[in-house]
Amino acid sequence: MEKNILREFRSLAPYLLPYRGRYILGFIFLITVDVAQMLIPQCVRRAVDLMAGGGFTWKQVLLISLSMLGIAAVLSGGRFLWRYFIHGASRRIEMEIRNRLFDHLLTLSYDFYQKNKIGDLMARATNDVNAIRMSIGLGLVAFIDGTVMALSILIIMFSEDAHTSLLSIVPLPLITVLILLFGRAVGKRFRRAQETYSAMSDAIQETFAGIRVIKSFVKERWFIKKFADTNDDYREANMALVRLFGAFFPLISLLSGITTLILLLAGGRRVVEGVMSPGVLVALFSYLQMLIWPIMGAGFTVNMIQRGAVSLGRINEILRTPPGIRSPERPLAPDPEEGPEAVISVRNLNFSYLSSGATGRAALVSVNLEIRRGDIIGILGKTGAGKSTLLKALVRLIDPPPETVFIEGVDVRSWELSRLRACFGMTLQDSYLFSDSIKNNILYGAKEDTPDAALEGIAASAALDKDIESFGRGWETLIGERGLTLSGGQKQRVSIGRALIRDPRILVLDDAFSAVDAETERRILNGLLESRKGKTTILVSHRVSTLCHAGRVLVLEDGRISEEGTPEELLEKGGFYARTAALQRLAGEDVPHE
Questions:
Q1: Cβ pair 461, 531 in contact under 8 A
Q2: What span, in angstroms and rounded, lies between the C-alpha atoms of 286 and 290?
Q3: Ordered DSSP codes for 26-69
Q4: Is the CB of residue 249 less than 8 Å from the CB of residue 299?
Q5: Inter-residue long-range contacts of 384-388, CB under 8 Å, 24+ positions, other chains counted
Q6: Per residue in 524-580, pLDDT tens?
Q7: I want to staple 200 with a disulfide (CB 3.0 to 4.6 A). Which of 230, 469, 487, 489 is the partner?
Q8: Which residue segments constitute the domains of the chain, with CATH numbers given?
């Protein structure tokens, strides 16, 4: 356990070192406060002895009072300053850890988010980072404060009356044993509490993300029960911690009370015998009461350190996860003006999601493809045929085998990731929109120097102009979580606008018209293809009416290209494309005949 704690906290060194000056100043003021606190019983001892001996003057009392007033001023200033430096540093470190965690999460690959739930990641970024801050803030304060005070108080007590002090601290070894046992128990229970908090966060996130489905299927009661169960688990995990604290601190208080009783009996007898002055006994009482905080603080320190170690382990678990897909150390930088005619080249591509299931069926098998600059390519296939997998391989959302996928004549694995993906403008099957205005959702895809005036042209190209006029706040209309206030067709058209505004070299529309009526689809495609002459466009769709705008169509079946040709040629072949066209024609869709 101790080795694990040290290993985890060692990883904090890069964060702590830049703030070592703040921590040193904070500890100096903390120790100053401790020293000032230990002077107060000495003032009380002098006052009691003066009064017990008689013959004191008001001037002597006034001097003692002024001394205590000065000590109080030092205490106030010192407490403010150590809080300012130590808590200020711990807050800054908390911010840096959270920033680093967020930055690292953005580098992790697609498969990481398939294995880890969003609620758990949110819990780590909030609850766990907060626990780390507490351990390097209050935890360190309790450790330094307790150590300095305990040693100093014991030295002073033994210098005042070693015999009485020795008898008074007899229960302390038992308290030390209890603290060590307490620390071991806290670590296990706190990890359980954090895990149940993650489960509860995930249940909340999943519920509100799917609120429309829940209401549509009248499943509110089921999700209320699900949340109640996870909430109960979280309560029980925390109650296990509460019960531990409930037993520990009263037991420590009892043992501390026994030390006070021993001091009263042993010290009182020595005062009666004239061996010890009343002032010394009162001072020892004060020091013994002050010694209770370091004892209690030791438990507090163990609690904070254990919690911090558990949380740091959960954070480091993510930070130590390397990105599955990353830029090469020496990326190539192809020149699109001097590149080959084939802007996209796929050569004998085979790919399988090995971890996706027990069957291990290949998602792509021996795919060979060339797309020239300015081509309009259509892709048709059943669900699961491999269309989306092929698109992900082009932009390295999944990693294709080396020397299989080339953009501008360069293997995608040799590109710098951000430059590779900047070549593309994509609309994915899931038209994900952010909880922001329509304007900002479109501008997320824009280059930095894109003027706002370009929005009007994009609105016309994506057939959004009339919709914008009908919204109360126009472009500034907030669309809610995941575009909750928009229809399916409106969300798809905003996504199309987001892809178009960057004027990409390669535009990929993955089933981008499934929620759009035929007339709007025709209007968008006619304008879009006219404006993109000379640039490459890939249309992925289940609709033959969409694919008939393509110059060449590929048909994917079971991960293989089974048909390839112009829409007219495929209609004549009588294969999957022709059968799909016939079925859609029977369904009343506007599909061209042979």
A1: yes
A2: 6
A3: HHHHHHHHHHHHHHHHHHHHHHHHHHHH----HHHHHHHHHHHH
A4: yes
A5: 385/556, 385/557, 385/558, 385/559, 386/556, 386/558, 386/559, 386/560, 387/510, 387/540, 387/556, 388/429, 388/510, 388/540
A6: 888 887 788 888 999 998 888 888 888 899 999 988 999 999 989 888 888 888 898
A7: 230
A8: 95-319 (1.20.1560.10), 340-423+538-589 (3.40.50.300)
